């Protein structure tokens, strides 16, 4: 197993590992691993959005099926590592080639991305000012128009924080999915640890961390572009004047899987 | 079930290590978050900086953080200290904001009343503001506890023993009983920590139960 000690020497070998052009090209090179990582993540996010967005809008708009949000939140206690292994053991043997890794890993990534997306969308629609909803109905909008033109834009800050939470969770878990044979940047990490090649493992770790931080920054920018300036970014009940209601708001906020800033309870 | 009957002692030992690796960072992280959150409230301008910088730390995937830790600390990669420090970082990342929000949620008129009654500085913080912020802080602590318990299981990959070992070993040797025991035991531990936090929070805020009974 690799040694970590020796500070500067190790950091030097880490950077010389990354700087080596031979480590960038080829099917197990950094570039290809990065593309794989992005592909798995995008695939899972698209699938999760297709499931969670309509469902969250439906729950928020109609108020039905609320237990579903609670149930998916409770599922956060399941260890992601166990979920990955269980699906790989269960589905892997009946699948051929790359699908034996890709299918179980994608299922788990989608399962982990759905709860924050669902909670964000539901909470976003739920939190729309009833006066705005009534006004929209008052000017003669149909239920569908209210949803599309009023509720969705107003819900966007919370929907986007759900997206940010889910995206980080997916990128982080895709790293661990290297343990069940998936490609991506996690390969550098997991193989580095397995073969006692600490510079490679540390290089993989650094690349994954940089990817996650860049992604978070990018999504934060996207959120700023997408959200109507009139909504003030939806920064929750912090600052300004304080009254008794804020205590309840802050408590609900802390309990929410997605904070208004996009930070959340569910890393892996 | 057969597997559990034959190995319950191992499960218990690993569960205790798991509790240690998830619980100690929770307490240390809380202790570090209190001054951070207080500072974010005291100097309101620093609130965005505290929230953003701690939030950014939470975005680093755990396996990556476990592997990077030896570079920062100069420890060996197998050292459990890496996991404890990494988990403390995650806890602070979640709690600094919660503590700030909790302290900010104390109504102005309550603070003014406390000041008028002679509560000042630290005495007001510990005697009035923090107790009133307990529900908010406890809510954040519950999220951090569940998150910590789940993340710690990944430390098996860097050779630090806890319940995650059952997951890795159960998968490698295809022992379903071991894998499922690992999953259920991890969830149980998260549940127990959650219940403890709820109980302590209730004990610290007796007036909430009284208010609930009255209304």
TrEMBL record, chain B:
InterPro entries to which the protein is assigned, alphabetical: ABC_transp_perm/SBD (IPR051204), MetI-like (IPR000515), MetI-like_sf (IPR035906)
A Pfam family recorded for this sequence: BPD_transp_1
Provide the membrane topology annotation.
Multi-pass membrane protein
> What Gene3D superfamilies is this protein classified in?
MetI-like
Q: Which residue ranges does the record assign to the ABC transmembrane type-1 domain?
A: 15-197
What are the record keywords, sorted?
Membrane, Transmembrane, Transmembrane helix, Transport
The protein's location, in the record's own words, is:
Cell membrane; Membrane
Q: Which residues cross the membrane?
A: 20-40, 47-71, 83-104, 125-145, 151-168, 180-200
Please state which protein family the record places this protein in: Belongs to the binding-protein-dependent transport system permease family.
The entry's protein name is: ABC transporter permease
